[in-house]
Amino acid sequence: MRRKTRPPLPQRHGLDPARLRLPVDGPWTTLRDHLVERLPRVAPERIDLMLAEGRIYDLNGPVAPDAAFAPGTSVWFHRDLPEEVPVPFDIRVVYQDDSILVVDKPHFLATIPRGKHIVQTALVRLRTELGLPHLSPAHRLDRVTAGLVLFVVDPAMRGRYQGLFKDRLVHKEYEAIAPHRADLELPTTVRSRIVKVKGVITAQEVPGPVNAETRVELVDVRGEWGRYRLLPATGRTHQLRLHMASLGVPIRNDDFYPVLREKPLDDFTNPLQLLAKVLAFTDPVSGLRHRFESQLSLSY
Questions:
Q1: What is the CATH number of domain 92-293?
Q2: Contacts 24+ apart (CB under 8 A), 218-221
Q3: pLDDT digits over 230-251, tens only?
Q4: Which of 124, 220, 243, 257 fits as disulfide partner to 214, beta carbons 3.0 to 4.6 Å?
Q5: DSSP letters along 16-49, please?
Q6: CATH 3.20.20.70 matches 18-77
Q7: H/E/C letters for each residue in 101-170?
Q8: What is the pLDDT of residues 8-56, one digit of tens each?
């Protein structure tokens, strides 16, 4: 098994540097020429500045501005970060040992860096706040969904905990607030085929073999609203939101389903009323049976 090369640059803001592997051949005379062609979204002037400031590294340290193109090698650098509005909610630690960390993620906080959300993500904030530079997620929640997320503290154990989710060995329960329909027979199990096309923000149900299954139970009713327990047997993108909308009871404050509505990233009002309530599994390292329950709550 090949050992992963340790980056020659330390983390910044809880983020590892980006690694760029250089091709084994090419027409470039200097590294700078290659970077300008390889990184078209970065202005050439910015690349020149990064080289001049010694912010691009190879295994021997900072690369000189006039360094020759070295086929088959790698360079590392920290990407420029987007401007982000701080998410004004705390992350609550539910459980921690030498192998895992379980937290209650608030609404509006992405699990991992992606797109416009980098520093303001659960992973980066936890790495920084708890001093756990090698922390990694075993699974993910949507940015707008709150509740329990399992992270792996020991990178050597990451595959074992991710395997629990891949092999469907984790019992997951969600809660949702949605309209109450007296004519809807519950409990029921929704089965459909869900596809998510890269570059399209929403997923959709399409004809074909079933790849998504959710049991829906009604727990409580208050006026026009119901509190539902959702038990997913699979984990497709936006599965719970799509299945609730397909039943005619879309989750309260859902800006995607059944109708897509744009919401500014700095608007932290009216959170989606969906909560990852329970995670239960047998720990593959300690053998202990874990059952965690979120302390967050939803609003009717």
A1: 3.30.2350.10
A2: 218/180, 218/186, 218/187, 219/175, 221/180
A3: 999 999 999 999 999 999 999 9
A4: 243
A5: PPEEEEPPSS-S-SBHHHHHHHH-TTS-HHHHHH
A6: no
A7: EEEEECCCCECCCECCECCCEHHHHHHHHHCCCCCEECCCCCCCCEEEEEEECCHHHHHHHHHHHHCCCC
A8: 999 988 889 999 999 999 999 999 999 999 999 999 999 999 999 999 9
